[in-house]
Specification:
Structural class of chain B: mainly beta
Oligomer: heterodimer
Distance between the termini of chain B: 36 Å
Largest sheet of chain B: 7 strands, mixed
Number of strands of chain A: 12
Radius of gyration of chain A: 14 Å
Shape of chain B: globular
Number of strands of chain B: 11
Order of helices and strands of chain A: EEEEEEEEEEEE
Largest sheet of chain A: 6 strands, mixed
Structural class of chain A: mainly beta
Helix content of chain B: under 10%
Radius of gyration of chain B: 13 Å
Chain lengths: 116, 115
């Protein structure tokens, strides 16, 4: 079974500062993918970034980067130069196992609030 | 790319009534997923389709729940004899099988309130 743990229920960050959202995962599979999604108050889940378990480089997408530490089973999201529009819920998720297992397992999320 | 659309956005019903939700995925996506999200939790997987075939169902999907994707395009999720515990956000997502990440594109969800 797969499990995602997000230990920060809420975070407050000053605008323009960098922020790190924590995510640890548990799986016995060697092949897996890790995702971060943003959920604003409108409800839609917005894809931010993906990291494959065999990827040698940490993933980056604009202001988002994923700090992937395989031995520690952590996949923290780093947002640089935070903006007011970054205020939202953030979910870490994992897909594990062979191709064909399409289920994503999500964590409980972190509510990020950017302070002007 | 018009995105994933869900209808209705909100549904209020009385306990015991049946409800049906619709999801229209991104047109070229062959996979479609249903998730349920309760307050303070992350989305939980319910079921997924590849084209018109329903390939996996969660144990969360009781006998009162049924999902269809008759022509491999839009999908419906029906809940019969609704209970208060069914109150949640129902999220639909789609993906393209051949993409590397097979990332899910989500709709805005249907918020169900059972009174």
């Amino acid at each position: 079974a797969q499990k995602i743990t997000q230990t920060q229920p809420g975070m407050f960050v000053q605008e323009k500062e960098a922020v790190t959202l924590d995510c640890t995962y548990d799986t016995s599979d060697q092949s897996y993918g890790l995702f971060w999604y943003k959920q604003p108050s409108s409800g839609e889940m917005i894809f931010l970034i993906y990291q494959g378990s065999y990827d040698e480089q940490n993933a980056t997408e604009g202001r988002y980067s994923l700090n992937f530490q395989k031995a520690r089973k952590s996949a923290n999201l780093v947002i640089s130069a935070s903006q007011l529009g970054d205020s939202a819920m953030y979910f870490c998720a994992m897909r594990a196992g062979v191709f064909g297992n399409e289920k994503l397992t999500f964590g409980t999320g972190t509510r990020l609030t950017i302070i002007p | 790319d018009t995105g994933v659309s869900q209808d209705p956005r909100h549904k209020i019903t009385k306990r015991g009534q049946n409800v049906t939700f619709r999801c229209d995925p991104i047109s070229e996506h062959n996979r479609l997923y249903w998730y349920r999200q309760t307050l303070g939790q992350g989305p939980e997987f319910l079921t997924y389709f590849q084209n018109e075939a329903q390939l996996e169902k969660s144990r969360l999907l009781s006998d009162r729940f049924s999902a269809e994707r008759p022509k491999g395009s839009f999908s419906t999720l029906e809940i019969q004899r609704t209970e208060q515990g069914d109150s949640a956000m129902y999220l639909c997502a789609s993906s393209l099988e051949t993409s590397r990440e097979r990332k899910l594109f989500f709709g805005s969800g249907t918020q169900l309130s059972v009174l």
